[in-house]
Structure formats: structure tokens, C-alpha cells
């Protein structure tokens, strides 16, 4: 048995169905019983409801129902962490372009290098954990800083280690530390040109969201400081104000970002064809390819190649790497050596 499109209780389009379901924070069974389907026997109701949800998800986003459900869990966790879906309210003098949004990755897209290593070192200075707990994560993040590319296995292992050492710790304490670290060590690491892009979207009446594998509390504080609409991040489960050491929904890495953006689009009624996504990593191809406009910012080699093949815009703000690509490594090394020699000569002249 399937739902009738003429049923006044059942949403008329896949988009309306997903928006209504997602607004219940993923409780598909309750949504089907309370809003979508007439009273029928439990098995038929479950089968019809799952079929309708699966069809709507596939038609709208091209992903499986389980993936979308995981995205809804992640978005719901982000909403709960923020105390509401929007962190910042739009400028009342700016007409809102409803349905349009921009999604920004954080590491090496908005923030220079890795936000996680800055965060971890800040926590270490606050004696939040021991050095033995942070060394494995620091090594993985050092590799990322040197190579400019992410490794999915490193991200997953780092996530598990991070979840383990925050187990039992207070959420309020972590949020307070996040605020201190963002204000003292992260704001000034933002790429000015990326911030300008984000504010151009806000000025056009678009929503602006951070979508990052970084802890959701950190991502949301960054979004608040920059005046963005909100942030989706990796959500650690919380009970009685303390972390359980378990994850809610996806880690927001690779396909996880696509699933969460799909869920957010359903909740916020966003038209993904009118949305823009920005990232530096080949791992974010799932998110980049689901929107109307994709932009590679400070891209790793694989993403640069993919962006060139797909005709996506490329923006590179890394001066040294850009200089190497423009003039070649020998020319840059020669120029650096010449500059160094000139500075030594100048100091010697001043000392005479």
C-alpha cells in the first residue's frame, strides 16, 4: 500500500515530504503516524512510509534513505548544539534570496591550515588532556599541513581518538575553551579573500553555512564570530551535559557532508541548483558536485585537476604555492635567495 497523492495529510511533492519529515528531526515513524499517513496496520504503514521516503530522497538528492537519515541525525545534532538552527540573524536591511545558500569547508578553505591542530594545541595549553593523547592527532594534522591533502583513514582514526579523550568531559567547559581558542588563535588565520566571498553571499541575501569535519561546537563558534548563518560539524553525543564518547550521525567528511547538506536543504527549503559550495579537498567532491556552482579554494592536486576538468572556478590564496606554479620553483628559490642576501647586506650596512 502506498500513500495517495490526493491525501490532504500527505505532502504533495518529494521536497515537501522531506521538509516535513526532516523538521521532526528524523523520527520517521512518528512523522508517518502523526502527519503523513492514514491509520493502517503497522507493517503496511512502515513499508509505505519507507518507500515514500526513499523515493523522495532518491528523486531529490540521488542518495539512499539511510544516508539521508544519517544526515538528518547530524543536522539535528548541530541544531541541538547551537540551541536553534540559525546562529546569526540576517541583516534586516538586506532582502533575503530564499532558497540560495553557500557552503564553506573550514580547513584550508576558510582557515589557513588545520583548525583541528590549532584547537588541539589550545586545549593542551589549557591542560585539557595529556601530550600522549594528542601526539597521534598532531602527526596526522602535520601531514595535512605539509601535503595540503587529507587522508580519509587518518580522519577516521583521528575522530575515534578524539571521541575517546573527550568521553565524560563537560560540554560547557569545552564550549568555553572553544571560544577562547577561536578568539585568540583562529580568527586571524582566516583567509581574507574567503571571508570576503562569504560576506558577498550574505550581502546578496544568501544563507552562509560552514560544513566541516571539525567538532560542531568549534564550527558554530567560528560561524558566530564571522556572522554566518550557521554551521554543520561532527557531532559527539551528549548525555546530562557530558560527552558519551559516541558519534551522532556522520562524521562530516566526504559523503557525510553531502548527506548533511541534503538534510539541511530539505529543512531550509534550499534550491541546491542555486547554491554554491567551496572547498580545498578532493574528499569534498560529493558536496561540490551536488550544488549549482562549485569553487575550489586552495585546492589539493587532485581537486585542482578535477575542477579543471569540470570547468569549476579555482581560487588560490597560498602565495608561495601560487608563485611556484606561476614562475617555477627555480625562479622562486633564486628570488628568495636574492632577497635573503639583500637583507643580510642591508643589516651589515646599517651596522657599520
UniProtKB/TrEMBL annotation:
GO MF, one annotated term: hydrolase activity
Name of the protein this chain belongs to: HAD-IB family hydrolase
Highest rank taxon of the organism: Bacteria
PANTHER family referenced in this protein's UniProt entry, alphabetically: PHOSPHOSERINE PHOSPHATASE, PHOSPHOSERINE PHOSPHATASE SERB1
Gene3D superfamilies: HAD superfamily/HAD-like, SG protein - dephosphorylation function
Family: Belongs to the HAD-like hydrolase superfamily. SerB family.
UniProt keyword annotations, A-Z: Hydrolase
Pfam families in the cross-refs: HAD
Protein species of origin: Corynebacterium lemuris
Amino acid at each position: 500500500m502506498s500513500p495517495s497523492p490526493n491525501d490532504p495529510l500527505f505532502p504533495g511533492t518529494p521536497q515537501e515530504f522531506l521538509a516535513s519529515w526532516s523538521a521532526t528531526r528524523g523520527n520517521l515513524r512518528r512523522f508517518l503516524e502523526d502527519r503523513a499517513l492514514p491509520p493502517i496496520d503497522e507493517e503496511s504503514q512502515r513499508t509505505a512510509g519507507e518507500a515514500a521516503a526513499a523515493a523522495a530522497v532518491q528523486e531529490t538528492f540521488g542518495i539512499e534513505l539511510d544516508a539521508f537519515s544519517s544526515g538528518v541525525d547530524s543536522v539535528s545534532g548541530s541544531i541541538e548544539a547551537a540551541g536553534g538552527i540559525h546562529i546569526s540573524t540576517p541583516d534586516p536591511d538586506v532582502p533575503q534570496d530564499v532558497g540560495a545558500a553557500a557552503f564553506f569547508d573550514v580547513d584550508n578553505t576558510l582557515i589557513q591550515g588545520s583548525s583541528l591542530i590549532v584547537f588541539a594545541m589550545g586545549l593542551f595549553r589549557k591542560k585539557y588532556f595529556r601530550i600522549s593523547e594528542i601526539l597521534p592527532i598532531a602527526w596526522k594534522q602535520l601531514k595535512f599541513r605539509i601535503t595540503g591533502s587529507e587522508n580519509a583513514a587518518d580522519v577516521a582514526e583521528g575522530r575515534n581518538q578524539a571521541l575517546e579523550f573527550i568521553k565524560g568531559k563537560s560540554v560547557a567547559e569545552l564550549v568555553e575553551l572553544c571560544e577562547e581558542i577561536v578568539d585568540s588563535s583562529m580568527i586571524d588565520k582566516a583567509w581574507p579573500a574567503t571571508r570576503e566571498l562569504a560576506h558577498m553571499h550574505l550581502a546578496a541575501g544568501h544563507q552562509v553555512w560552514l560544513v566541516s569535519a571539525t567538532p560542531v561546537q568549534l564550527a558554530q563558534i567560528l560561524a558566530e564570530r564571522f556572522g554566518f548563518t550557521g554551521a554543520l560539524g561532527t557531532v559527539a553525543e551528549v548525555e546530562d551535559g557530558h560527552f558519551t564518547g559516541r558519534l551522532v550521525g556522520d562524521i562530516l567528511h566526504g559523503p557525510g557532508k553531502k548527506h548533511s547538506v541534503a538534510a539541511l536543504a530539505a529543512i531550509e527549503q534550499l534550491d541546491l541548483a542555486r547554491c554554491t559550495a567551496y572547498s580545498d579537498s578532493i574528499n569534498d567532491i560529493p558536496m561540490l558536485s551536488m550544488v549549482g556552482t562549485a569553487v575550489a579554494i586552495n585546492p589539493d592536486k587532485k581537486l585542482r585537476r578535477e575542477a579543471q576538468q569540470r570547468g569549476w572556478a579555482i581560487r588560490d590564496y597560498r602565495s608561495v604555492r601560487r608563485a611556484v606554479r606561476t614562475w617555477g620553483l627555480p625562479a622562486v628559490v633564486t628570488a628568495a635567495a636574492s632577497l635573503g642576501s639583500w637583507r643580510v647586506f642591508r643589516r651589515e650596512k646599517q651596522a657599520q
